[in-house]
Amino acid sequence: MKVSIFTLEYPPYVYGGAGVHVYNIAKRLAKFINVEIRTLFLKREADLLRKDDIIVKRYPCWYDIVEKTQRKYRPVFKAMSLALAINADKVEADIVHYHTWYMSLAGFMAKKLYNTKLITTVHSLEPRRLWKRSALAEAYNLSSWLEKTGLEACDMIIAVSNFMKNDIVKVYGIDRDKIEVIYNGIDEALWRPVIDENILRKYGIKRPYILFVGRLSVQKGIFTLLEAFKHLSTKATLVLVTGKPDSKEVLERFREAAENLKNVVWINKMLKSEELIPLYTMASVFVCPSIYEPFGIVNLEAMATETPVVASRTGGIPEIVVDGENGILVKPGDARELKDAIEYVLDNSEEGRTMGERGRKRVLQYFSWSKIANKTLKLYRRIVKD
Q1: What does the pLDDT read at residue 180?
Q2: What is the maximum alpha-carbon separation in the chain?
Q3: Nearest 5°: phi and psi at 324?
Q4: Considering only CA atoms, which of 215, 216, 217, 219 is closest in space to residue 291?
Q5: Cα separation of 212 and 288, whole Å?
Q6: Domains (range + CATH), the chain
Q7: Which has the closest alpha carbon to 39: 10, 68, 1?
Q8: pTM of the complete model
Q9: 9-36 mean pLDDT
Q10: 97, 169, 174, 367: most buried, per Cβ within 10 A?
C-alpha cells in the first residue's frame, strides 16, 4: 500500500499542531507501508529527499502571482497554486491523506484526476475561526468553501476529537458515519520529565513560573492569560513561548498588553524539544487558555512531562484534561476564573505534583503515537479494501 500525505507543514517548516501530527504519524506509518509527503518548497530544502523511510517532495507556490495579490488574499491563492503544482506531478498512490484546508483543493484534485481514495484529518474548522475574517476578508469565505468541498469529496474523515466530529456534522452536514475519531498523540519516550537548569539561566527565568506555549493568536487565548496574570496575587513568572503571530494587528495588541507587566519572559520563537521539554518539566503549571481548541497537543506535552495543566473547558480539551484529576478546567475567556485556577495550583504544589503524575499516566494509556498510527493504519486498510 502507498499513501501520499499532502501537508502545508513539514519539518523544518512546522508552526502548529498539524505539522507535529503529520511528522510523528508519518514516520511510524512508514514502518509498515510506503509513505510519501507532498508539501511546500522551501529555498533551503531540496525538492526531493528521503528521510525516515519517507519520500518528501516539495513544490513551489506561484509566488509571482501570489505576491501580486492583496495581502489578505495570499493564503488562499497560495493554497490554490500549491494544489496545481502538486497535482501536475502524477499522484501514484492508493490513498491521498491531506491535512488542513490549505490542502483540501489538492486532495480534491488528486481524487478526480488520479482516482485515489481520499482521507483527511480535521484539526480545526474555518467557520469556527471567526477572528480570521478581519485578516482574510472575502478570502475567508473562499477558504471555508475549499474546506467544505474537500470534506464532501472524502471517502473517510478523521476527527482529532469527539468534539471535532460533532462540529463537522453541525457545520457542514457531513454524514457522521463517514467520520472516525482518532486522537492526536505524543512520543512518550521523548516527552518525559527532564530537569535542566541551564535552560532557565539561558532565558533568564526565575521559579516558580507559569508556562504558555502556542501561536500568538486570539484563538489561543493569550490576552485572557495576560489579563489573569495582571491580577495574580501569588508571585510567579509568566513564560510565553510563542510562534508566528496570526497578523500584525495581533502582534501589536500583544505588545501593548504585555509592555507594562512585570515578570514576563517572552521567548518569541518556537523552541526545539530539547529546550521545550525541560521548560515544561520545571514549570509549576502549564496554561492553555484557548478560546477555540479542537484538540490541543500542548496539553499532552505538559502532561507527558508531569506538569499540571490549567486549560479552557472548550473543544476537545476536556477529552484530554480531566478536571480535578490531572488539571483544572475553566471557562474560556474568563480571566478571573483562570487567575483563580492558576493561583490554586501555585499555592498547592503537592496537589499539583500529583496532578502531573496522573497526567503522564493518562498520556501513556490513551495518546501514544504508536497507538494512533495503528488505528490510522487499520482505517487505511479498510478504505482500500472497500
Answers
A1: 98
A2: 61
A3: 85, -10
A4: 219
A5: 7
A6: 2-185+368-385 (3.40.50.2000), 197-366 (3.40.50.2000)
A7: 10
A8: 0.84
A9: 89
A10: 97
